[in-house]
Every structure is written in structure tokens, then in C-alpha cells.
UniProtKB/TrEMBL annotation, chains A, B:
Name recorded for this polypeptide: Putative pterin-4-alpha-carbinolamine dehydratase
GO BP annotations, alphabetical order: tetrahydrobiopterin biosynthetic process
Keyword Lyase carried by entry: yes
Organism: Pseudooceanicola albus
EC number: 4.2.1.96
Keyword Lyase recorded: yes
Family the entry assigns: Belongs to the pterin-4-alpha-carbinolamine dehydratase family.
CDD domains reported in the protein's UniProt record: PCD_DCoH_subfamily_b
Lineage: Bacteria, Pseudomonadati, Pseudomonadota, Alphaproteobacteria, Rhodobacterales
Pfam families: Pterin_4a (PF01329)
Catalytic reaction(s) noted: (4aS,6R)-4a-hydroxy-L-erythro-5,6,7,8-tetrahydrobiopterin = (6R)-L-erythro-6,7-dihydrobiopterin + H2O
Top EC class for this record: lyase
Keywords: Lyase
Gene Ontology molecular function terms on file: 4-alpha-hydroxytetrahydrobiopterin dehydratase activity
């Protein structure tokens, strides 16, 4: 079952993500990252691939796109804060870059 | 050639768009609309179709998506304000809904 993360579990789970550029905003309880691509096509291709996983896992990002940039904010709305699902989707998004 | 719109031309061009829910923000010089869909899949399908036209016309929206909602902001960054390209892309986005 998905549950809100305790601060210690959260930090353990998020630490590898901080290394790839994710940041955690305690005030909004959101995990976020700005991705920059070569151009719009690359940025939207990334979004399309990520969208498949989001739908598959029924866990969707709040995200915006401006030309070659994609800004992602992850939180688990149903739970009112970050959960392991957010870490899972963040890891997947990083994997999609490689 | 694409050029900034005079207020009168802008209003003529944007008036039919206002009727479908677009609004023009004079302060930011941006044409914007919130689209709501049945679910994430429908919202992202719309974005994918719109992305093809944006790339084809080399005119890209600033947009964000949160589950079934897509918020679009159109302006012509190169020109520093709205142009006929923004009206053209807005019309196309409306057409994609039908």
C-alpha cells in the first residue's frame, strides 16, 4: 500500500535522486526537477515516454513544457504528500534519459 | 512575415477565440486557455496532436498538464508578444477537440 513517507524513509529514498538533480520542497511536499533537452522534439519525446509509465502506474506528474524544457513536480495527491510512487516515477524519468 | 499585432487587429483575430474560452492577458501579452478532458490519456493525446502542429509550424506553446487538465499559454517569444501565429495555433488546438 502506498503511504506517506516518514522524513527518514523519504531522505533514504530521495538521496539517489538528489544526485541526478531532483529537489524536494518540504513546504509543498513535492519532488521536482527541470529537464533540458536539445529541442522541442526531444523534450516532447521524453514526455511521451514518461506519460506511458505514468498511465501504466496510474500515477501522473504535474508538469510543464516550454520549448526544450520540461519541469516536473511529483506528489501523491490522493495521500496529500510524497510517497514511494513519486520516487519510482522520478527514477523512471531519469532512466528514460539514458 | 510574422509581426506583433496592433490592438485592433488583435481583437479582430482573437474575438472568435474568446468565444471558445481563450483569454488574452494584456499584462503578459499572452493568449491562454485551460482545457479539461476526461482523463490523463485524453489530455495527453490532445497534447501529442497539438505538438505535431507546433513542431510543423515551428511555433511552440508554453503549457502545463495536471492529470486531465492542460493549460496553454501562447505568445511569440521571438517577437516579444502575440502574433497571428498564436491565433493560428489556438484555432488548431480548438479544431483538435472536435
Amino acid at each position: 500500500m502506498t503511504e506517506l513517507l516518514s522524513p527518514s524513509v523519504r531522505e533514504t529514498l530521495f538521496e539517489p535522486l538528489y544526485a541526478t538533480g531532483w529537489t524536494y520542497d518540504a513546504e509543498t511536499d513535492v519532488l521536482q526537477k527541470d529537464f533540458t533537452f536539445q529541442d522541442f522534439t526531444e523534450a516532447f519525446a521524453f514526455m511521451t515516454r514518461a506519460a506511458m509509465w505514468a498511465e501504466k502506474w496510474d500515477h501522473h506528474p504535474d508538469w510543464s513544457n516550454c520549448y526544450n524544457r520540461v519541469t516536473v513536480a511529483l506528489t501523491t495527491h490522493d495521500m496529500g504528500g510524497v510517497t514511494s510512487l513519486d520516487a519510482k516515477l522520478a527514477r523512471k524519468m531519469d532512466q528514460l534519459l539514458t
